[in-house]
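INTERNAL AUDIT FORM
Audit reference: QA-55
Scope: verify that the stored structure record matches its stored sequence.
Auditor: D.O.
Record contents follow.
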Amino acid sequence: MLAGMTAQITADEKDGAARDATNDGRGNFGGLGVLVMLAGPFLANLDFFITNVALPTIGRQLHAGPGALEVVVAGYGTAYAVLLVTGGRLGDDYGRRRMFAMGIAAFTLTSLAAGLAPGMSVLLIARVLQGASAALMTPQTLATFHSGLTGRAQHRAVGLYAAAGGLSAVVGQLLGGALADVDVPGGGWRLIFLINVPVGITAMLLLRRTVPQTRAAQRAGLDLPGALVLALAIAALLVPLTQGPSLGWPWWCWTALALVPVFAAVLIRMSLVAERSGRTPLLPPSIFTVRSMRRGMPVVIGFFGVFGAFMFVFALAVQDGLKVSAMTAGLAITPVCVAYFATSFLVPALLRRLDRNVLTIGLVLQAAGLAVLLVVVMTSWPSLSIVVAVAALVVVGIGQALCVGSLFRLVLSEMPIRLAGVGSGVLVTSQQTAMSLGVAGLGSLFTAMAAQGTMVLAVTVTVAVFAGISFILAGLSRRVPRVAR
């Protein structure tokens, strides 16, 4: 959701751009090609959020319990996060357009399988495969923009990437609620997956004619040991946090969490040894010597953790707390959606004038909107003041658009072009992992408190945490470097 690139290519990056091969000889591509590439991250992010509002309907119609419903979201998110860096490396080595084509084809097929699933087991398998497919196509978009476009064309494409990524999240909540209540054979929830099919087919038909093939100048190799250890580390973190609360925290959850620092230490050691010996590891340590990446990563993780948790909690609080339908719950997010969409297109111009201040302002606005929403919940739940609540959601939407539109451009502003693919993969992995952690941690806090019959307290505590984290991140954003000029 998500990103931005440098406003000025340094001399070293110009050399890298010259070496970054395009098979068909086109260095740039037009607006239609940009839109085709945006279909990947848009669908990937949409599918993470569109299921939130539809979960109660899926549970009723497929007779699934809370644990299985959590896997519908967590299975997708975990597979997506685990394989993103590997997907970026494959694009660098074998061609980004080729990997994007394979990814979106697989995503389309697995979406069809999920939409036609006869039972919960097939749906869960399809969701995990959907996540793996999304990991193959998503990192290719940023890397292609970084290597195939320059100057204003690159900045516009990245601005649209940020708008599409964040907009897909809020639209997913709205669309999920609307489709879940549609009266079709088998249940309207099936449409939240089947809607991906025509979009995916259209993108596949247009891809070869509108997007150049790009790849890194030299193949770095896949680094299978690194990919395996990274996958184990992320899975050991996300699976227990998403499944532990519903399973009563069995022993294997605690064992897996205890192994996370072990896997992390092994991965760091392997990466250092590989880089010193002249090989390119899956996670080159040199990436984290880039100042913009090092200082910006805490803000990325914090912001998207709050972002994912807010969307999850909002959907459940409106449906279960205010006792409204899935469609009404989806419509309730409309103020955020409209504000986000309208603001997204202003971010590139604001960045040119205000630079990193755009990120700080966005975080402060998000925190302020959440603080107002907190007051509304504390004083009038469940008979909320609609005008004040809508105004607070609008402020939240504006703040989120400013953050998403500026954050990744700032964080990746100093990244060398030779690391475009792996850098994009690392950043999107961090974003996806943070959203999953937000849902697992803060979402579990909310559901645990709500299960005790204290819905207003659950909403109050979680929104207060969201606001507090946002204010802290606003302070941290002052350490993020300005965009190079």
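Auditor finding: record pair retrieved intact. Strands lie at 21-22, 214-215.
Action required: none
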